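Notebook B, p. 112. Complex prediction, attempt 2.
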Amino acid sequence: MNEITSTRHNHLIDPSLQIWNWEIPVYLFLGGMVAGMMLIAGYFLFKGRENEENCSCFYLPYISFVLLSLGMLALFLDLEHKLYVWRLYTTFEISSAMSWGSWILVLVYPMLIVNILLKPPAAVVEKFPILNKPKEYFFSNPMRIKSFGVLTMFFGAGIGLYTGVLLSSLGARPLWSSSILWMLFLVSGLSGAAAFVHVIAKNVYERELLAKADNAFLIIELFVIALFIVGLKTATEVQASAADLLLTGDYAASFWVFVIGLGIVIPFIIQILAVNHKIKHTPIAPLMVILGGLVLRFVIVSAGQFSHWFRTY
Amino acid sequence: MARYGMVIDTLKCVGCQDCVIACEAENSVPEGFCRDWITTEAKGTFPTIQMEIRTERCNHCTDAPCVSACPTGASHYHDIGGVVLVNHDECIGCKACIASCPYDARFVHPEGYVDKCTFCIHRVEKGQDPACVSVCPTYCMTFGDFDDPGSEVNKLLNSRRYHSLLPEAGTKPNIYYLT
Amino acid sequence: MNSLSRRRFLKISGATISAAAAVTSLSSVVKGAQKIDEKTGKPIKGIQKIPTYCDVCFWKCGAIAYLKDGELWKIEGNPNDPLSNGRLCPRGTGGIGAHYSTDRIKHPLIRKNERGEEKWVEVTWDEALEYIATKMKKIKREYGPESMALFSHGVGGTFLKHTMKAYGTNNMTAPSFAQCRGPREVGFEMTFGEGVGSPERTDIENAKCITFIGSHLGENMHNTQVQELSKAIANNASIIVVDPRFSVVASKAKYYLPIKPGTDIALLLAWMNVIVKEKLYDVDYVEKYGYGFEQFAAEIEDKTPEWAYPITTIEPELIRKSAREMAKNIPASFIHPGRHTTWYGDDTQRSRAIALLNALLGAWGRKGGFYLPNKFSVPKYSDYPKYPKSKKPLVHNPGHKYPYAEGEQLSTGIREATINGIPYPIKGWMVYATNLLQALPNRDETIAAIKNLDLLVVVDIVPSEIAGWADVILPEATYLERYDDLNNAPFKQNFVSLRQPVIDAPHDQKPNWWIAKKLADKLGVGNYFPWNNIEEYLDARLKKAGLSLAELKKKGVVKGEKQPIYFDEGIEPGFFTPSGKIEFYSLQLEEHGFDPIPKFTDHGNPPPGYFRLLFGRAPVHTFSKTQSYKFLKDAMSENEVWMNQTVANKMGLKSGEYVQLKNQDGKKSGRVKVRPTERIRTDCVYMVHGFGQTAKEMKTTYKKGGSDAELVTRYKMDPIMGGTGMNVNYVTIDWEA
Ligand SMILES: Nc1nc2c(c(=O)[nH]1)N[C@H]1C(S)=C(S)[C@@H](COP(=O)(O)OP(=O)(O)OC[C@H]3O[C@@H](n4cnc5c(=O)[nH]c(N)nc54)[C@H](O)[C@@H]3O)O[C@H]1N2
Ligand SMILES: Nc1nc2c(c(=O)[nH]1)N[C@H]1C(S)=C(S)[C@@H](COP(=O)(O)OP(=O)(O)OC[C@H]3O[C@@H](n4cnc5c(=O)[nH]c(N)nc54)[C@H](O)[C@@H]3O)O[C@H]1N2
Ligand code: SF4
Ligand code: SF4
Ligand code: SF4
Ligand code: SF4
Ligand code: SF4
Ligand SMILES: [Mo]
């Protein structure tokens, strides 16, 4: 028997950490989606699809812009000392993932704007012809577009990485102290974005490609989750029991049903059937993937806060 | 350079929470919160029980993850004694530091910034012991400078068996418990 | 016996005091530290420090209150005070919560509806006191003044006692004898001729071996004792703890004896058997000072550890080892006498057994044992008229049924007289600073008595449970807001300390001395208060001791010259028993038909499915008085019922689950959390006393946790001194919660 009692009674800390509610998972989810979309848009640009009239690389930046702003709003809402938010930008703290993240996010905005200006809305250009300049600049040399595509992918990967690294840099939570959490969030972001684009893509080629890609991402995601769990299970005792939170503990139901079942396995099957033209493409499967990604963030954030080095549960 | 810390004799501590209450009064800790607390760990089955009673607080870690996690520099090492402090005016309340502290030593002050033990630096700078140390009726806590080889805290560590909390977390905590 | 002890004080005191009496003019208005500067009319900035002494329990530690910008900030120990040594216990540190309590009564209240309904009308002090005086005069006319009784706990009652005596009654009591220290005091007086007193005269810091029978220091936070305990631990003293529960001090022990509740006398006899048989006792000491040792030795001849084993469940080998450990450390080895000793009704005999074991160890009068305290001599205020003489007997102990209930009166005796009117009716209670609903066993009897009253006045700071039943509640200023009488309790180091106001009372609350004096005026006995305010009284007393109020106001405490406190330091050993010796065989007990040498009596077992209900202290609370104090209420907001882990598992009880307890008489407690733990035997459960309060007006404490007092419907009277053994109740879990 090991009987541990504590007199501590701090709000949001005891009996288990509850500092982050919906805001952070939503922010991580939206960040992941944006990352995925930037990767996709960047890839298409790199692939020279800028000449396709209905290439998603032209409207994804709009969506990214909105999602990213919503994500940052969620992040802002989570701050306890909102009036001081500007403090983030009076310094750069090299060791702080949060600081990296906040700077990356502001750098991403210009990227998205430039991306938007590759095909600026006609009405706007009429009023401000100057806005045609970037387009002219980029389109005058395909290499420029290619490089810009790479840069977009680079920043997209940066955000994706960052959403995972943010948690795993907080080593005090055994569930998060995994070296592949970033990969999990990155892949999940990609699969979510691919699913999303797959639903809205006007271009048939892109739709087919993304459905296939999404299936690949889902398989990779499953594989990464397995790695993540095995990694925890074979690490310290506390990390093993943190993994158990997902496998058999309080979070098992959401994890197995929503993340694995409805979020990966079932949509995977549906999409396999669709890709092989056994059934029609349906937005249901991609929606499931997206929701699964959202639940994944919620599960990881809450279970991670619950996991602890001291307690046995 | 000084490195402030505490050595706490668990054989003497009775878990009375005087240190907790003194801290709350001294530092006007808001109701419902505490900067220090008591952990009691009982091992065994009745009647053969080993019990350790500890007063715990921020360990003012030498490699403090809360400081590295902080995006604004609000969490920082103080010039004196390496004490880990939070600058209220720089803190945005993002709580990354809370999530990064393996000891759960921090909390969000109702006014929005993150708060925790300051080692009563305002007293220490005046040559006084921290409030918790100076109130303890069992005299089980000693505050001092680990960088001073002749300090009382070093003498205690040299004379007794001790442990720190979660050394495996790699934070280099500066509070030691004599057993 | 008290007078005998006092004689010894005179013999050894004669303290020389090197204090110059300063002459200062005293303000006629008695106020605390000021928020507004009287001269400039501006708020006072910065830190003010005001010494006083603590009142969160009866230890009376010297303290210094700090004000920041005119607001009460914190309170610390006074470094010059020998009781606190500059450090208060958690309750003392949290004492500022008394001032800040949000539940405080702001104005005098007179009852509107039925008693106990807690409905009030606010009145002025004049109206309240007029109301009380009219009723008291009526009681005096119809029944005689003796039909008023006073229940008063603590130093604050001094002046009310004076008023009541002037009015003509001597029926006055406190729960500190028959519910607390009584058996111990009598047991030790029967043995050594003197009681242990408060503060206990235990020399813990110099002991090499200390044995605790239940007394749970570290949870029981009597400050100096805890401080000394830590010094003893630092000196590697051996600690032996006997407790059915693995207490905090048990975790510091070399030997922990998990005794079956109620069987301590058997263990004590077995220990003495070992020590006598193996001739480990202090032979010289016993030969020199002992009386009746042979009869005693013969009596315990067969009380072997093997005999005690089935009774106590303590392994014989453990009994032997621990006995040898205590004997090995003679004479710096003693058995702590405990304080709350009213457990099973044979408590005087258990305390006798503890005293006798101490005698075998030669602990009385020895360094590391029981020192001989001395007292700073401060003469009483002497300009009072003589109190009226009563022809009626006291009511608390009719026919001297309990022959040794004579030092202090039996609270339950006065309650009984109030219920049955024998030897004469009691029609009025004045209750000062004691929550009789929590303090006395069997709440129904207390309420029955209250229902017989024509007048119940409660002086309190909050609308407590007892106040809920009052006809009139008088809101007192807290200890931080008032003067009280001086403290010059006998101790290792003689001293005198002052309580003075450190801050103004926030509303219309008044100090006890003011209440007592005004009431005396209304009762027509104002001539008993020749002083205008308490400052005059205190200054007059202090002047006679060669000190002054001005000096005490500044220093808080003044120490006398160090006096010898051990036989070894030249004190002539003297025992104020009939034989003049330490009575292994008690002549007095024999004379009254009691066992002259303690015997074990069996206290039975809980019925199947039931557990013996035990209770004690938590470090952050004092009985039922501190639960509404800020800091302290955070530190522990409700109590839990401790229950053995295995038993809880079998019953399917989870940690933190709320249950109700039901006792053998079907009485139920409020909702209380279960705490399954390895730290307690399987045949008992344990609760911290003071919780589960039922006063609706106490918003912060209402129904927080469960009340042990509510479940103590049975109690066993100690035939020797009238104590109420309260550990005789059994409870079971009631899931209806
Ligand atoms: N914090 C705090 N400290 C206090 C007080 C307070 O209110 N709060 N009150 C003060 C006062 S007035 C008093 S009287 C004292 C009381 O303090 P103590 O004199 O120490 O009181 P006990 O009743 O001995 O303490 C209860 C302990 O006795 C154990 N016990 C119960 N039954 C038995 C038994 O049959 N045999 C044995 N061996 N042990 C048993 C219980 O498990 C528990 O550990 O505390 C004083 N100190
Ligand atoms: N069941 C059970 N009964 C017990 C005990 C137990 O452990 N269990 N312990 C016993 C012991 S050891 C003792 S000593 C007694 C203690 O018994 P009490 O001395 O009656 O203790 P409390 O319950 O704290 O009641 C104190 C009352 O005084 C009030 N008060 C506080 N401060 C002031 C003040 O400044 N002025 C005034 N006028 N009032 C004030 C409080 O609000 C409260 O109503 O109880 C005994 N009875
Ligand atoms: S005040 Fe001292 S004895 Fe009490 S809990 Fe704190 S450290 Fe332990
Ligand atoms: S204990 Fe926690 S809050 Fe304190 S320095 Fe270490 S990591 Fe930071
Ligand atoms: S909450 Fe404040 S102190 Fe903590 S990491 Fe964020 S900004 Fe820094
Ligand atoms: S050092 Fe000061 S701030 Fe830290 S726990 Fe002790 S009293 Fe509180
Ligand atoms: S022991 Fe604690 S509560 Fe009692 S007088 Fe001393 S400081 Fe106050
Ligand atoms: Mo007591």
